[in-house]
Design brief:
200 residues, 10 strands, Rossmann fold, alpha/beta
Length: 200
């Protein structure tokens, strides 16, 4: 069974193509979410560090719950009739959090520190989180810049940019979202391994 979850679907299916313009601000939208990968390996031992995953920053075009698809390099549109369950930065934060929790490699990981401050903060920026129209398919590109910051003196311990891509089976919304899911899986597995390995 796919991990991709369709939270809500209206009874009437939209006949619009993936690139058609939004027709009505009151339109009922299908809501999709991405989940943390199921195949994340558990860490061989647990770090004693408390880690805070801060909400990522991003550009204005991605500061939304709409699913972006680009017909060209300089043009951005959103899939009609569909949205994410959370705004993109919040969803990415949730994916990071759940992926790290799945490793069982950290003493604590959360959106907020346990006390006044944690040991390490994960600071990130969502650079790409969109699909690109290829004609009969779409290419999904995810790119996120991540820094590990020691809270005590705000020193950057490590930094890396993670990127992944996946091609959809068609321009239908479920296929495009499935490609987002595949690209997210690849990126989050690499991210979680990098964080846990770096903080041992």
């Amino acid at each position: 069974m796919t991990r991709l979850a369709l939270i809500f679907a209206p009874l009437a299916l939209s006949a619009c193509s993936a690139l058609s313009a939004l027709s009505d601000a009151t339109q009922v939208l299908d809501v999709y979410e991405l989940r943390a990968p199921e195949g994340i390996a558990e860490a061989p031992r647990r770090s004693r560090l408390n880690v805070t995953v801060e909400s990522p920053t991003t550009t204005g075009a991605l500061l939304t719950d709409r699913i972006m698809i680009k017909p060209s390099e300089l043009e951005a549109q959103y899939l009609p009739g569909a949205r994410w369950g959370e705004e993109v930065p919040v969803m990415v934060q949730s994916l990071m959090l759940r992926s790290l929790q799945a490793t069982d490699g950290l003493s604590y990981v959360g959106r907020e520190p346990l006390g006044l401050s944690g040991d390490v903060a994960i600071v990130s920026d969502v650079i790409d989180f969109q699909a690109r129209d290829l004609g009969e398919q779409a290419e999904v590109t995810l790119r996120i810049s991540v820094q590990l910051v020691r809270e005590e003196d705000v020193a950057i311990l490590a930094s890396r940019t993670f990127a992944s891509q996946a091609v959809s089976a068609s321009l239908e919304t479920p296929d495009i979202v499935a490609a987002f899911d595949a690209a997210s899986d690849e990126l989050m597995v690499a991210f979680a391994d990098w964080v846990v390995t770096g903080l041992r």
